[in-house]
């Protein structure tokens, strides 16, 4: 049975996608794990780290994307998520190079799906009915993933920078959520806000589950991973080191020991739709080492 995690922050550009991709590919490449990546961000970045836009377009037209799952739910049609699992999407010269890893690709259409899910709410006079609707709207991904969860060791869900219903679906099916963050002042405030918001969402989920007889409860905080840390002696870099220590004080063992520093080496990897581990170049090698350690720490924390 897969262990399921959401990688989340309501901020953009804080390494969610890069981290999801590299933990996933590392677990598959080096530890022989079966990994399913699920991209639920309409920006489709995780999908494009796995495959070129041309191959995605092809898959989307012929097979579908995560949007198909939500569209089917809105249209009250049956849907099997297996139909949109892209088997071994990461390729080099036309051959799969991360054979243990599959992907549920995303779609820009998710943008309107969140609005449609919200709009499909109906008023209720009975509390039980309202609770059931609350759960139903947040259990779409959970119900779908049950179909394939036995086939994977890990399912990693890359979330968009918001907490709307598609994100709440990701949280509801996850045992824990992993936050990626820069160790700067605004991110520190952001961590607290995110933690509180998810706690509130979890409370609502537990409450509605108790009334409706559902089983969703929401995830625990599983970890905080710092990214793009700047080390050194300047004012800004000193502030990073200080903030990291401060956040460790607040969140204790939830903070990963390993982190990434601000580095070059991601650009070529993302252009070639390959993980940095598979790029033969000095810059990529340097950053690859950081994600190896983060991947190993993830595995040690969630064996
Ligand atoms: N350690 C790092 N050093 C330099 N650039 C990074 C680092 N980690 C991520 N990036 C780059 O930052 C940008 C945003 O990262 P991304 O993972 O897409 O963030 P998010 O998913 O939170 O929006 C990407 O272009 C990515 O390649
Ligand atoms: Mg992203």
TrEMBL record:
Q: Which PANTHER family match?
A: COBYRINIC ACID AC-DIAMIDE SYNTHASE, P-LOOP CONTAINING NUCLEOSIDE TRIPHOSPHATE HYDROLASE
**Highest classification ranks of the organism:** Bacteria, Pseudomonadati, Myxococcota, Polyangia, Polyangiales
Provide the protein name.
ParA family protein
In this record, what's one Pfam family? AAA_31
Looking at the record, the residues that make up the AAA domain are 3-203
* Record-linked InterPro entries: AAA_dom (IPR025669), DNA_Partitioning_ATPase (IPR050678), P-loop_NTPase (IPR027417)
